[in-house]
Prior knowledge:
This protein is of the alpha/beta class. The protein has two domains: about 5-185 and about 360-370, Rossmann fold; about 190-340, 3-Layer(aba) Sandwich (Rossmann fold). It is built from 14 helices and twelve strands. It has helices at about 5-10, 20-35, 60-65, 85-100, 115-125, 145-155, 165-170, 185-195, 220-235, 250-265, 275-285, 300-305, 330-340, 360-370, and strands at about 10-15, 40-45, 70, 105-110, 130-135, 155-160, 205-210, 240, 270, 290, 310, 325-330. Strands 3-2-1-4-5-6 form a six-stranded parallel beta sheet, with helices on both faces. Helix 2 (about 20-35) packs across helix 14 (about 360-370). Mean pLDDT is about 90; it is low at about 1-5.
Amino acid sequence: MTTRQKAAHQRRIAIVTGTRxxxxxxxxxxxxxxxxxxxxxxxxxxxxxxxxxxGQTAKEIIRDGWCIDARVPMQRGDDTPGDQAMGLSRGIxxxxxxxxxxxxxxxxxxxxxxxxxxxxLAAITTGRTLAHIHGGDVAPGDFDxxxxxxxxxxxxxxFPATPSAAKRIIRMGENARQVHCVGAPxxxxxRQLKKRLHKSVEKSGLALVVQHPTGRSAxxxxxxxxxxxxxxxxxRLKRIIIxxxxxxxxxxxxxxxxxxxxxxxxxxxTIHASLPRIDFLRTLIxxxxxxxxxxxxxxxxxFAGTPSINIxxxxxxxxxxxxxxxxxxxxxxxxxxAIRKTQKMRPIKRLVTPYGVEPVGPKIAAMLxxxxxxxx
Length: 376
């Protein structure tokens, strides 16, 4: 390749997304890549995006105006013990083929799910440069925690969200020059939305529920979800419930939701297989509290000014975005006590978040435009 050809070459950046939540976090980076003339976005869609039973959220990506370059089926959503393992193997094979045939230069993955692991393994085995967002976080209550650290060891460049996460990556033996603390990309959309919406301190009488399985038996996950929903009902709050992700045990969470729906009036319970990112964030700003075990309750909810209740151990060790996060065990009595605490927290005082104050997507795109590539 001549010098002139090199100058004209567009860097092909593959973004891997497997869930609705992760897609929302990646979107500002995708937009920033699209704005750069020397970069070409390749969007790889996999995981629950392709499953009808989980909302088939690939349709939302298309409605947002994005072109999907590759659809790589992974899990089948049947909640059997082997579904995740077989899904991982299908993801590696499918993504490796795409990266090789499409001339991908850099692969970008986020977080700790098996979709990100599949993308990471496919990237390094085909000679791509691998970038990892949100490495260095800690969540030992979930088996995904080990996956996150495994991806860190595979990655060539790191975009942690907090200074402590950056230090943790360096302590793992990674080159400090390849570790760039950029902040949490999930705050980018929320930062813009907050400018347009006024956060009222009046009670809405609504709770937003986002509870995911943690790899345990479906029966145990069902019991926990029943406790959560029963406690919210006893607190006389209406429920906006988002269906769980594809992790093992999801059928138990879903059963608890369906049973709850049949028990209570439709005026009290609203269920969504998925919500578009902006609609989700608008809801987050407007409700009385967020309850469940999503990282959104740790990172975005405090920034939105909404109290959150973190259930169980899934987010244990993850840096809290503010003092408005209340931890609770999975018992109904503990959850109800936590709800009562949140009802005394309004309005939330202004907070200083460890997850950054500037837009993250443009920073990541700028760094991806100039890092050395690993393949020829």
